Amino acid sequence: MLSMRAEPYEFEFDPKKTALLMIDFQRDFVYPGGFGESLGNDTSFLLAALPAAERVLKACRATGMFVIHTREGHRADLSDLPRAKFERGKPSLHIGDEGPMGRLLVRGSYGHDIVEELYPIEGEPVIDKPGKGAFYATDLDTILKMRGIERMIACGVTTEVCVQTTVREANDRGYDVCVLSDAVGSYFPEFQRVALEMIKAQGGIFGWVSDSGAFIEALAASPATTGAPA
Ligand code: TIU
Q1: Does ligand 1 lie within 6 Å of residue 199's CB atom?
Q2: Are 118 and 156 in contact (CB under 8 A)?
């Protein structure tokens, strides 16, 4: 069992029973011209999360930790898109409309896919989800259970929307989740701060909060990286 500095107290994890969850690092949220900008957001805020997320991803790959990516989006015929989600916010471009990166939040379009530096590799499942939470209408829970995963490290965008919704869903399903504060991003710095406060309040009501440095340092002690017997 490894232990890392975290709030409200140390997060203990066995890398063999822990997954890295990379939530919605899609061009549609991170770059101008996508779904995030269509809602009136300044996408540049999210870029701050990418370097730490990349360091964490590389450290997990080096250790052999299980990595899962998620993408928010819909079928090309929009048959899984609720009317409420389509209409909400009176966006400049709707989900399914053609934008500079292809059809907004539609599976298969350039904008819907994951940014280059965090792109999934062989053996890393990609969960396509229609909602904000990664458990809703997906097989994420099944995949985690088949691998014996009990805990997760969470990175992703946006902190108070898809990351927090997923952490709450994971918590209710019995998983321990630690969110890395410098590897998550929000269009609203204040929401980022408060979302993380909410997760770790009340003795860790939804989970833990730490940062990429603490996680990578803890992971360096794992048998896979030190070469010690498992
Ligand atoms: N709008 C916003 O902050 N986020 C989303 O719509 N989806 C995710 O967070 N992935």
Answers
A1: no
A2: no
